[in-house]
TrEMBL record:
Domain of life: Bacteria
Binding site for Mg(2+): 56, 172
General function of this protein: Catalyzes the ATP-dependent amidation of deamido-NAD to form NAD. Uses ammonia as a nitrogen source.
Keywords: ATP-binding, Ligase, Magnesium, Metal-binding, NAD, Nucleotide-binding
Organism, scientific name: Pseudomonas mangiferae
Pfam family, one: NAD_synthase
Reactions the enzyme catalyzes: deamido-NAD(+) + NH4(+) + ATP = AMP + diphosphate + NAD(+) + H(+)
Name of the protein in its database record: NH(3)-dependent NAD(+) synthetase
InterPro entries: NAD/GMP_synthase (IPR022310), NAD_synthase (IPR003694), NH(3)-dep_NAD(+)_synth (IPR022926), Rossmann-like_a/b/a_fold (IPR014729)
């Protein structure tokens, strides 16, 4: 492991590879306890999470559901609830995957907020978009979608006196692959420190189908490229990112891409600049 790999892994709190299945299951229990502790410390009983159909939100959702179920059984208080929120922009091209995720999560409640009208209305008021190329305008709109989705989740959480769950993990964090104050905004992030392979392993251990656990990751924010894979945007694979974070050898090209992207996106992982 290079000094830079160690520095970055430490900064992101990367979890070492699971030694065996028992270690994986222990990590699952630790993260469910973390979710429960967040509710207790906040004095609240409701959790809210947007479900896209990807493995990250599926795992976070199932952990949240199991956490509140355990709290209900422990306390006898039916006020503990998990709300899964579908947040399509118009018609989602992989809607079947989102439905499969919801079937697996078995959330206490499912709500749907279609963000298309809100996004369209906001973009229509921004003159600065007019001179942009179609590709640049699509990129800006993608970030608006991510922020609109988080607005919806926080609105539901505010209305129900709850907390919003985020799905960021180490493999996305190192690449800055989230929208600042969009999907990067949340009250708790129970997948923090995990690499992508570990998220997939937890999904399988929780009983998710191979299709759900191994779905090709996509932010799906671009109208011009619906379903664009994360790895295409990165220029490296998740296997390479995971290896880098866990101190294993990677190619020189992958090393350079990951380090440069990490440095360039540092502002996303920090509080706003201040004097």
């Amino acid at each position: 492991m290079s000094n830079r790999q160690r520095e970055i892994a430490d900064a992101l709190g990367v979890i070492p590879p699971f030694a065996d299945q028992a270690a994986l299951l222990a990590e699952v229990e630790r993260r469910k306890a973390f979710i429960q502790d967040c509710l207790r410390r906040a004095g609240l009983k409701v959790l809210v999470l947007g479900i896209s159909g990807g493995v990250d939100s599926t795992v976070a959702g199932r952990l949240a559901q199991q956490a509140v179920q355990a709290l209900r059984e422990e306390t006898g208080d039916d006020g503990y609830r998990f709300i899964a929120v579908r947040l399509p922009h118009g018609v989602q091209h992989d809607e079947d995957d989102a439905k499969a995720a919801l079937d697996f999560i078995q959330a206490d409640e499912v709500q749907t907020v279609n963000i298309a009208d809100g996004v369209r209305g906001l973009l229509g008021q921004i003159d600065a978009l007019t001179p942009l190329s179609a590709e640049r305008r699509d990129f800006v709109a993608g970030n608006v979608k991510a922020r609109m989705r988080m607005i919806a989740q926080f609105a539901i959480a505010n209305a129900r006196n709850g907390l919003v769950i985020g799905t960021d993990h180490a493999a996305e964090a190192v690449m800055g692959f989230f929208t600042k104050f969009g999907d990067g905004a949340c009250d708790l992030a129970p997948l923090s420190g995990l690499v992508k392979g570990q998220v997939r392993a937890i999904a399988a251990a929780l009983g998710a189908s191979e299709k759900v656990a191994q779905k090709v990751p996509t932010a799906d924010l671009e109208d011009l490229r619906p379903g664009k894979p994360d790895e295409e945007a990165y220029g490296v694979t998740y296997a390479e990112i995971d290896a880098f974070l866990q101190g294993k050898p990677v190619s020189e090209q992958a090393y350079e891409v990951i380090v440069k992207t990490y440095d360039r996106s540092q502002h996303k992982r920090e509080l706003p600049f201040a004097p």
